[in-house]
Every structure is written in structure tokens, then in C-alpha cells.
Amino acid sequence: MDTTIKIVKYELNDVLRSKWVAYYGLFFLVLTEGLLRFSGANVKALLSLVNVVLLLIPLVSILFGTMYLYNAREFVEMLLAQPVNRRSLFAGMFSGLALPLAMSFAAGVALPFLMRGGAGAGTGALLMLLVTGVWLTLIFVALAFLIATAFVDRVKGLGTAIILWLFFTVIYDGGVLLFLGAFSDYPLDKPVLALMMLNPVDLTRVALLMNFDVSALMGYTGAVFRQFFGSGLGLAVAFGMLGIWLAVPLYAGLRLFEKRDF
Amino acid sequence: MRAKHVLPVVLILVLVSSCAGARAQDLVVGPGGSVTTLTEALASAHPGDRIVIRAGVYREPTLVVDKPLTLVGEPGAILDGQGDRQIMTILADGVTVRGLTFRNVGVSYVEDRAGIKVKEARDCLIEGNRFENTFFAVYLAQTADCRVADNEMIGTYTREAASGNGIHLWYCKNITIEHNRIHGHRDGIYMEFVEDSLIRGNESRNNLRYGLHFMFSDRCRYEGNSFRENRAGVAVMYTDQVEMIGNTFERNWGGASYGLLLKEIRDSRVEGNRFVENTTGVYAESVNRTTVGNNVFEGNGWAVKLMSSSQDNRFFRNNFIGNSFDVSTSSRRSSSTFEENYWDRYEGYDLDRDGFGDVPFHPVRLFSLIVEQNEPALVLMRSLFIDLLDAAERVFPVLTPETLVDARPKMKPYPDRPSGALFSTTARPNHD
Fold it and tell me: How many beta-carbon pairs under 8 angstroms link A with B?
């Protein structure tokens, strides 16, 4: 455990020194401030932020994560020559990267709201946005670590990362739409909810929808939907699945990392 | 000759004096008094008398008021129907009922029992009463020139079939319904074949069906009412020249729930209203020559659903803010016009700085068509893929109606206007 903390400390220093994380946080700060200033309404600014969060956080997390691990290869090899547990090294590097990324996002978004004395009626939505944003960061850094450990070749790794991002944010939903069109004669409530569970970006989006578009969601006539979105059930299931989405890639990455021959 | 004239003069004198006496007479009903039941008092009262009802619970057969009387309840005067019969029937003109509490009228599937039923009468005044579980609270049939004001109507009904309406009007004229609070009934206010009436400042919420249900009622006006959380919202149907002004339609949620459902409406005005967080703000089917202006649509699922059977309507100077869908329609053609509305989705620019965007805005999204055809697709809302589809469609409209367009979208939202200032500035319907 002690080594993990030492590694986290070192990683934190390293990541902060690279200033990337600072720019990332600054970007969110400027974006949020700008949206609040120009839209005037909290809820509207939050809605615009939703799109950015769903798009940008996965992209930055997965790209930055893979690149970082490839760049740190020599450092990893050096440490592994020492009496360092692979498990603590992996945990240390993951937290050392994911935490600053998540924190700079949260701080960047929350600060402009705090300076205006909170989000008012949008407080619930803002909290939801922050929690899901942090969660997405963790998930996609975990995916990045999995990719970077699985592929030795960095070009292959980066390519996979970009394709994975594209798949989760765009292609998957296109597939869902095709599926809905093809099977529109059947009751699709449950299948479509299940499909949403299989994509972390969609999961986050659905969780956020419950905050922003409840009025429309309640217009849907299917009972399963109404039960899912109208009660705490939907939220509980969504967060449960997000937990699984973090645990599985992280564990798989760890197993690969432990077995890999550097 | 002279003797012949004496008799009529005496008769007139007698009549005049008896009338004068009647006007002054107050009858007091109360436990412990000389008259203990309202039934006795009504039987012995002369036209024009005032009956004061002391505190107490009165359990009597249905009271029939068949002469012009004023009934005034002191605080604590309760008329109880014991879960069975209608409490009061008014059959005479010029009756006033004030300050009474009516409760427990039994549910009937055969007759429309009510707290107060007024039948074929004029000039009644029903004011400041309280109705608790009275099946129908106030029921006016074939009545004119009445006023129903400041009453509170509370139902605890759970089934639509086994509940009555708060205020029920059938074949009426010149009725004023003002500042009543109605909840837990089937329809808060129900109007059928009513003309030239005014509904103002009422609060109708948590009713099992419609907050206001309005049919075949020409030239009526409702303003400044609040309709909240009714299971099906407000329905206005088969009516000409109705004015809906400055009302609030809020949180009417559900698959068949509408802030305002308009069906077969002509030459009417929907102005200065607020539609907040309804599943559908305004649903318009076969609505013609109607103006929808200066309204606020905020946080609705669908702000406006405009069916292709609607023609020549004008949507102007509305604020569309934070709705999941702004406008959806069932056809590619639309003969209604949209002018100078504020759309929070608008992304155009205003180079000449006149406050209106230089690029037209198409409020119908491709996604709304997709959802129309395939409901579960709703879960894809706000997905990047959907946004890309919408953007592509906006550049080259293929599927969305090309004529449904706001040529001069406002750049900034219209400020919230106080409802008083609004009435003078609104435009009249455009009939050309």
C-alpha cells in the first residue's frame, strides 16, 4: 500500500508538471464560464455542457491515458526491476492519472457555478453532471490502460483507442437506431434499455436525460420505460452498470499487466 | 265610480307593505333556536328573505330553493349529504348561497348529484363556500347570469368513472367563474354548450382527468388560471372565438397528457400563457385561424404538436426554452406561420443587429420524426449520432417540413411580461 501511495504521489507530480491537466481544467473553466455568461440561464448552460461531457471526456481520457502509459514505458520497466508489486504499480499509475483528470474537470465546471452562488434550480442536474463526468473519466482511463497494456505497438494502441471512442459515442447509437428500425414491429422497451446498459456513454446520457428531459420521457407510452425513468430504479440500475463498466476493464487491465512480459 | 277605485288602491298598499316587510326579514336557523332545520326555514321563508345558518351539522333531505332567497352560513355551518343524496337544488332566480360547507354527496352512476345544482335559473351567486367530497360540487344547467366565486372544492376521488366534476356547466350563458380552488375531481371545470362566459383566476390541480374541459362553448374567455398536475391537462374542443390568456399550464405529465389540447378550434387566441414542464405543451388538431402569441414554452417534452389538419394559425413572439422538442408535425406541408419567436436551439447570427436572426430557423427536428415513428428511439435523445443526423437534415431538409419555418427568429428571449401589460399589446387574430 505504501508503495502505491508513493507511486501516486510521483505520478501526480509528473502529471501536474506536464501542464496538460491544467489546460484541460482551464478549458472546462472557460467553457462553463462562457456558457453561463452568454446563455444567461443555468439549465441551458448545463444542457450544453452535457454534450461536451459526453463527447470530450471519453476522448481526452482514452487518448491521454493510452499515450501516457506508452510514454511511461521506460519508467514502468525501471520500477519493475525494483522490488515493486505490479498490482500497486498499476493502481498507483491509474489513480495518479485518472484522479487529476477527474478533479480538473470537476473543478473547471463547478467553479463558475460556485462563483455565482450555486446552480439554483439546476443544482441536482449539476451534481449529476459532475458525478457522471468523473465516472466517465475513470472508466475511459481504465479502458485506455487496458488498451495500452494489450498492444505493445503504440500506433495500434492509439488507433484502437480512437476507434473505441468513436464506437461508443457515435457508431453504437447508429446501430441502436438501425436495430429499432428493423424490429419496430416488436415491443422494444426492454431490449433498448438493455442496449443502453452496454455502452458507458449511453448509460451516462440516459442518467442525465432523467434530469433534463423527464417531461418528454414521461410521454412515452410504454410501461417499462415509465417505471424505469419515473422512479429511482432507472438511476440505481444506471449507476450499478457504471460500476461494472469501471470494474471490468480495470480488472482485465490489471490481469494483463500482471502477466505481461516487459 | 269612486268606490270602484278604492279597492285597487288598498290592494296596492297592502302589497307594498308586505313586500317591504319581506325585505327586512331575517330567518335564523340553528341548533337550539326556534327553527332547527333548513327545510323548515325554506318552507316558511318569503321571497327576498335572508336565511342565516348558525354553526352546526345539518343532515336533511335534499334542500329545494324555489324562491329568491339569500342563504348565509356562519363559520362552522355544515350541510352533510351523508354519502347519499344531492344537498341543494336551486330552481328559482336570484338565489345567493354564501359561506356554507357542503360535504359527502354519494357517488352515483345514474344521476349527477351535486353539492349545489342550479337548474333553469338566472342571477345566482355562489360564493365563498367549501365543498368536500361532493361528487359534483357546483352543477349549473340551463342557467344564465350566474357567478361562482371564491369557492374551495376538494375531492378525494381515485377513479375517473366514480367521480364528478368540480364546476359543471351545461347549456349556460353569461357565467362568471372566478378565484375558485378545485382539486381531486374528475374535471376541475367542465363546460359544454356554454356561451359568453368568463373563467378567471381559478386554480385547478391534481384532477383525475382535465383541469378544464371545454366543449361547444363559443365566445368564452379564460384568463389568469392555473392548471397544474392534472392527469390529462386542459382540453378545449369544438369551439369558436375562445380567448385563452395569461394562464399557467404546468407539469401535466403522461403519454396522453397535454398542457393544452386544442381540437376543432377556430378564430381563437392563445396568448401570454406559460407552458412549463408538460409532456406536450400545446397539441393542436384541426385548429384554424388561431393566434398563439407571447407565450412561454419552457422545459416541455414537446412544446407544440401541430397536426396537419390545422391551418392558417399564427405562432408569434413565443419563447421556446429548454424543450426536448420544439415543434413536431404530422406532415411535410404546413400552412401555419411562425414569426419572430425565440428558439433556444437557434444557432444563426444577426449581422444587421435588428435583434432578429438573419438565417431562418426550422423548428422541426429530424429526430422528432424518428420518435414519431419509433417511440423507443426516445432514449437516443442528445446522442451525438442524433445531433449529427439533425444537423445534416437542417442543411439539406429532405424529410422535415420545409415550409414550417421561422424566417425572423428572435436572438434573445422576450422578457417575462406582467400579465396586466400584456392584454393591451396583443394582436388580434389575423383573418386574411
Answer: 108
Residue of A nearest to B250 (CA): A215
What ipTM was predicted for this assembly?
0.85
Phi, psi of A32 (to 5 degrees): -65, -45
For residue B7, name the pLDDT band (cuts at 50, 70, 90). low
Task: Please list, in sequence order, all residues whose beta carbon lies within 8 angstroms of the beta carbon of residue B243, skipping any fewer than 6 positions away.
Answer: B220, B221, B222, B223, B268, B269, B271
> Residue B379 corresponds to which cell in the numbers above?
432514449
Is B415 a residue whose pLDDT tops 70? yes
Taking contacts as CB-CB distances below 8 angstroms, the residues of chain A near B249 are none
Cell of B270: 392563445
The cell numbers describing B167, all together, are: 364546476
* Chain B residues near residue A226 by CB distance under 8 angstroms: 255
Distance CA B82, CA B61 (A): 10
The predicted pLDDT at position B9 comes to 54
The pLDDT of residue A181 is above 50: yes
| Contact call for B324 and A225, based on CB within 8 A | no
* Selected residue with higher pLDDT from B21 and B246: B246
Domain count, chain A: 1
SS3 content of chain B, % helix, strand, coil (to 5): 15, 40, 45
Residue with cell 394582436: B427
The pLDDT of A145-161, averaged and rounded, is: 93
- For the beta carbon of residue A20, count every other beta carbon within 10 angstroms: 17
* Element counts in chain B: helices (H) and strands (E): 5, 39
Chain A CB within 8 Å of residue B324 CB: yes
Boundaries of domain holding A252: 2-259
Mutate to test the interface with B, among A214, A215, A221 (most CBs of B within 10 A): A215
pTM score, whole prediction: 0.83
How is chain B split into domains, by residue range? 232-364+401-432
- Tell me the mean pLDDT in the region A255-259: 90
